[in-house]
Every structure is written in structure tokens, then in C-alpha cells.
Amino acid sequence: MLLSVRILGSAALMAVTASCKQLILNFDDIAISNDNGCGNFTFGEFSVYHDIAVSDAFGTSRVFNATKTPSCNSVLDEDISLALFGRAPSPSNALFISALLDAQIVAANVNTTLVNEASFDILPVFSAAERNSSDVTVRIFTLFSDFGSVDIRNTFEFHTATDGWGPYHVNVSSNGVEYRFLEVDVVLPDEDSQRGGLSPAFFVDNLVLESTE
């Protein structure tokens, strides 16, 4: 649902498009080894990676190596391990989100914004009940925002019976409107009441954004 957007004139839109910079976050340039146990890398609340601060609902996020080894055959729990190992689209690493991804532009130039296309791959963490189901509906919600007048929302739906168990590729556009952060939420039917209403965990890979710098 499009609640409020800032409209750019065609000349301004052409100028933004011509000068935009692609930001590729596949997390594979972070050195993580599973040779001696399961390695991981933690982004703190104020960590910036390729001009983007990435965090989840708890203010942090972790990157895991998706390669199963004799020294690393289980990460956190069985559901998370099954979602991760051997399934990340890029060669090695994937970003683990406990609930709700926030990706915010943090560049040296404070006037730099995000714009145009965003794309990413999602690997949901399915529960045992969901894995035993003949078909699970996966809904992915996106939000473009500038913390003010821009509020652009989209919903994407996948079905395990026809689309498999992921990764699910999402491509979404702000249609030339500048924004400051992307929020991604994943909703599955089997919610865990112990999580206090929080959305399910998931992995993100190949996050690609465009900035005006």
C-alpha cells in the first residue's frame, strides 16, 4: 500500500539515476571459517558495512558461514541449521536476522540517500511443523522510508508447494523516490508464542541497494 511518497520530476529522476551507486552486500568478503567450530561475525548496533547499517529487531545481526564441515554441523538449533547449510545463494556467508531486517544508509556524505531498486534473497527458518506441511505460505513485507514523508510498502507471497523452500528472490523498486532505510519482515503461519509476537527468523543474502552517491 502506498501511503505517502515524494514525487521527483523527470529531469531530477534522470539526474539521480545517472549518478547512483550500487551497494552489494553478499557478506562473502567477511572472513568466517567453520574449520574449527562454527564461526560467525556480529554486526553491532552501529556497525556499517558497505555504507549500510544492518540490524534486526534486537539491534544486532550475525553473519554465518553456510558450509557444513566436520567441525560445524549445527548452528544455534536444528531449524536454523536446516535453513542455512548448503542453501545460501552466494558462495559462503549469509546474514542471520532474528526478526525484522533494517538496512539504513550511513555514508560519509550525510545527504546521500537510497533510491530505485533493491533486491535480496530470503531463506526463512521453518519450524518442524512447517517442514512437514504439504504447502506453507511465506509472506515477505518490505518498507521504504525516510523516517518522514516516504512510506512505500510492498508484499510478496511464495508457496513451498510451487516455489520450494527458498531461497526466495525479491526485487522491489522505490520508483525513483529517495529513501533512507529498507525494512524487511517475513511472516510464516507457525508463529512461536515464546517470541512475544516477533516475526520468524530468516537469513538474507545478496542484498543489493542503490545510493545517490
TrEMBL record:
The keyword Signal applies. PROSITE patterns: PROKAR_LIPOPROTEIN. Keywords: Signal. Residues 1-18 form the signal peptide. This is Uncharacterized protein. The lineage of its organism: Eukaryota, Fungi, Dikarya, Ascomycota, Pezizomycotina.
